[in-house]
């Protein structure tokens, strides 16, 4: 399978603190990778670096041929090219409050890719239908439930047709039934050719839906592999602490 994302020796400092300490990861086409770890371990920071929302101090990130290097923010052309390769769904959705669901999904294709409105709306309708929220196309974000807003945010991220989708804690505000629905939706995306990297504290979600799990602790990858094997028989102390924390929250 072809590589969609390659991270090599990713390092990031904030003042005296090392947030990322040599992270390495390779993600292949069609995978749903769960990036797990306790809060503060660096999961969200990795996603933000991949999406060029955060600069880093050392290492290389290759997103489908768009290569990010340490130092200042990438050029406008590099960012534009990157946006065709990767989309990001934030934990808090960050939908534009003054735009309807349809307006949120069509904004980037129309403004960035200069897609005609009719074509952008046709594609947005397809995405919203596939995600089960087409009936909410005219609703404003404040009129959507948490699960609906999340699905609109996924549709918005997919509207630019990126092969890689990053999601930050997508199950954080969902009950078990909604979590299962989301998991099935994400699996459908991988079947359709998308690749997903998802940060999560939810070991049940990772067991049920991820193809691979990567455990981060204090800015380093400490364990990775088959979710059921890693999360049932953890070898590293950080993975054991993560599972203990997850059990105490249930």
Topology:
Layout: E1 3-14, E2 17-28, E3 32-36, H1 43-50, E4 58-63, E5 66-68, H2 76-83, E6 86-89, H3 101-111, H4 117-130, H5 146-158, E7 164-168, H6 176-191, E8 195-200, H7 203-209, E9 212-217, E10 220-225, H8 227-232, H9 237-249
Parallel strand pairs: 3-8, 3-9, 6-7, 7-8
Antiparallel strand pairs: 1-2, 1-4, 4-5, 9-10
Helix pairs in contact: 3-4, 3-5
Describe this structure in words.
Helix content is 38%, strand content 26%. The chain is globular, with a radius of gyration of 18 Å. The strands form two sheets. A six-stranded mixed beta sheet has the order 6-7-8-3-9-10, with helices on both faces. The chain has 250 residues and is of the alpha/beta class. It has nine helices and ten strands.
